Amino acid sequence: MSGVAVDSSEKPDAAIDHKAAIAHWSNVSADNHGVLGGYPQVSRVDLQGSSNFLAKLRRKSTIHKPSTRLSRTVDCGAGIGRITAGFLSKIAEVVDIVEPVVQLTKVITEGDQFKELRKQGRIGEVFNKGLEDWTPSHQYDLIWNQWCLGQLTDDQLVDYFQRTKDKVTEGGWIVVKENMSTDPEGKDIFDPADSSVTRSDGKFRELFKRVGFKIVATEVQRGMPKELFPVRSYALQVKMKLGMSSYKTATKRK
User: Fold this and answer.
1) Count of other CB atoms within 10 angstroms of residue 112
2) Which of 41, 111, 157, 191 shows a CA-CA span of 20 to 30 A to 28?
């Protein structure tokens, strides 16, 4: 979350160490303060921004209209389920969880905050593994990736997208919401604290193109503290599926 990072090499993602990342996240407190890097106050504005972003997508869709719940979604890099509780569970019948740190997912599987959702069957499968090792076994109307893709190398991220792009229902979306590099030369930035990389907007667009994704909407999250990295959301669809979908492209860049 923080902007304290170093550009360690010409290829910063090569420095990613998954074991070091797991160790880092296993030692944070299982609450908003811990998972948000000491900035728990950003949760409210972040969740509202995500809700608004999806609402715009759904208003332009003839398949996933805002008047009905999405059938199944997945919270990737879910942590303690902050996004599931505050956003995804409000717009979907079932939310699956992908998160490698068991200490964090215990909040979802055992915590009182999720007791009613578990009772209602609204929390689906919980996959305790990293995205580099996860292959979806369901079709999803929405695959939500936030503040987690920096733990994957560029090649792992492309492989992950390849595994997930055919697991989206017609007219559905893969959403990426991540920090943006502020390097003046547009380079990616490696952060040794959690062994992650913060990518540039250009790098994300390059990787999306490699996979065959079309950016149907993108915007910068407003209201974040100025000392943090800017945060951008991208709504992605597979190019070959766009012709089958009645979704009206709403791409914008700002």
Assistant:
1) 7
2) 157
Q: Which two tokens stand for residue 19?
A: 């074991």
CATH of the domain at 80: 3.40.50.150
Binding residues: 77, 82, 146
User: pLDDT tens for residues 96-123?
Assistant: 999 999 999 999 999 999 999 999 999 9
161 domain residue, yes or no:
yes
Cβ atoms of residues 70 and 93 within 8 Å:
yes
Give a yes or no: residue 249 inside a domain.
no
Q: Which residues are annotated as a binding site for S-adenosyl-L-methionine?
A: 77, 82, 146
**Residue 2 in domain:** no
Say if CB 137 and CB 166 are below 8 A apart: no
What is the spatial distance between Cα 28 and Cα 47, in angstroms, rounded to a whole number? 21
Distance (Å, rounded) from C-alpha 83 to C-alpha 179? 16
pLDDT of residue 10: 67
> What whole-number distance in Å separates Cα of residue 176 and Cα of residue 142?
11
The pTM (predicted TM-score) of the whole model is 0.91
pLDDT score, position 239? 77
Q: Do the beta carbons of residue 201 and residue 253 sit within 8 Å?
A: no
Number of domains in the chain: 1
User: What does 51-62 look like in DSSP terms, one character per residue?
Assistant: HHHHHHHHHT-S
